[in-house]
Write a structure and sequence with these properties.
- This protein is α+β, with helices and mostly antiparallel strands and 347 residues long.
- The protein has one domain: 4-Layer Sandwich (Chorismate synthase, AroC fold).
- It is built from ten helices and 17 strands.
- Helix 3 crosses helix 4 and helix 7 packs antiparallel against helix 9.
- The radius of gyration is 22 Å and the shape is globular.
- Bound molecules: flavin mononucleotide (FMN).
């Protein structure tokens, strides 16, 4: 079983990840982890903090030389903005954020105690751990990529930038839709046998866990509900040198809770960033009097970065179901099991 856990606060000393369950004998390249961290910081519409931070990871355990030992891999990404104990207390919860429910739940009188952890800063170590998983998947020729589909309804890059500039000028924020694609996934990962081992369910949960994501669909997704079955189900073909294949991929590579051999395609909708420079109405949690919501340094739009995080989350899930099927002890044994399976499903 692959397990991932993160620790760390936005302005704490560091973000830390533990990835447990990766096999022994896998080559790890630190620069590939750092490249993914850099990608998470990019995108038009990001805030000031992205200029302060140039995230780099340190590997604390689980690796000797450049090779995994099969023991838990601990990764650390330091916060250059480490000042959690100097920052002022916050009392006006931001609509759309974890602020109010978090303060009520944990009994905090200072909302900073919530937002330090609820911040999307935590996703830096998801990306670091996801980069390790991507390296594993790369050993089997699987690739994951993401792209923006639309921002506030705009699909052309020029129009998207214009819209983000407009939002910046109006002290407002934007969301959008991005797509994640996983290529060269063998058929039969996940299973129809148990609800909680379905690959579509696992992927949906992990993508939905990204802060700000409000909807996830696979393939044609919601649009399937408006069509005749005969016009949307992907017909099955066979060629000797190619094996089974489809000419369409409306299912997004998933049937019966399993990969079907076609690219896995997920689309996610992200709500507009919650911190507004021109804040909405709120209530002071001490006095219960009307007050404007707290203003923090914030992004205007982070859809591109959310796509990079989604790649990492998808990588972790695909890694998990892949190792469920082919074993998890050593790269040698996994490769042997995979070769045997690949020979049989292509026949
Ligand atoms: C990459 C990324 C960057 C984000 N940056 C900010 C930000 O600067 N300010 C903010 O208020 N929310 C930001 N968010 C969104 C909040 O984290 C999110 O709206 C909040 O967690 C509440 O969403 P939820 O209800 O889905 O948890 C960001 C999200 C992501 C994925």
């Amino acid at each position: 079983m692959l397990r991932f856990m993160s620790a760390g606060e936005s302005h704490g000393e560091a973000m830390v990840a533990i990835l447990e369950g990766m096999p022994a004998g896998m080559k790890i390249e630190l620069n590939k982890i750092n490249q993914e961290l850099a990608r998470r910081q990019q995108g038009y519409g990001r805030g000031q903090r992205m200029k302060i931070e140039r995230d780099t990871a340190r590997i604390l355990s689980g690796i000797k030389g450049k090779t995994t030992l099969g023991s838990p891999i601990a990764l650390m990404v330091g916060n250059k903005d480490f000042k959690i104990n100097e920052l002022p207390a916050i009392f006006a919860p931001r609509p759309g954020h974890a602020d109010l429910a978090g303060a009520v739940k944990y009994g905090f009188s200072d909302i900073r105690c919530v937002l330090e952890r609820a911040s999307a800063r935590e996703t830096a170590v998801r990306v670091a751990a996801g980069a390790v998983c991507k390296m594993f998947l790369g050993e089997f020729n699987m690739r994951i990529e993401s792209k923006i589909v639309s921002i506030a309804g705009e699909t052309e890059q020029k129009q998207i930038r214009k819209k983000i500039d407009e939002a910046r000028k109006r002290k407002d924020t934007l969301g959008g839709i991005f797509e994640v694609i996983v290529r060269n996934v063998p058929p039969g990962l996940g299973t129809y046998v148990h609800y909680d081992r379905r690959l579509d369910a696992k992927l949906a949960a992990s993508l939905m866990s990204i802060p700000g994501i409000k909807a996830v669909e696979f393939g044609m997704g919601f649009a399937l509900a408006g069509e005749f079955g005969s016009s949307v189900h992907d017909e099955i073909f066979y060629l000797k040198n190619k094996g089974f294949y489809r000419k369409t991929n409306n299912a997004g590579g998933l049937e019966g809770g399993m990969s079907n051999g076609e690219p896995i395609i997920a689309r996610c909708a992200m709500k507009p960033i919650t911190t507004l420079a021109n804040p909405l109405s709120s209530v002071d949690i001490r006095t219960k009097k009307k007050r404007l919501a707290t203003v923090q340094r914030a992004d205007i739009c982070a859809v591109e970065a959310a796509g990079v995080i989604a790649e990492a989350m998808a990588a972790m899930v695909i890694c998990e179901v892949f190792m469920e099927k082919f074993g998890a002890d050593s790269m040698i044994s996994i490769k042997r099991a995979f070769r045997e399976y690949a020979g049989h499903y292509k026949k």
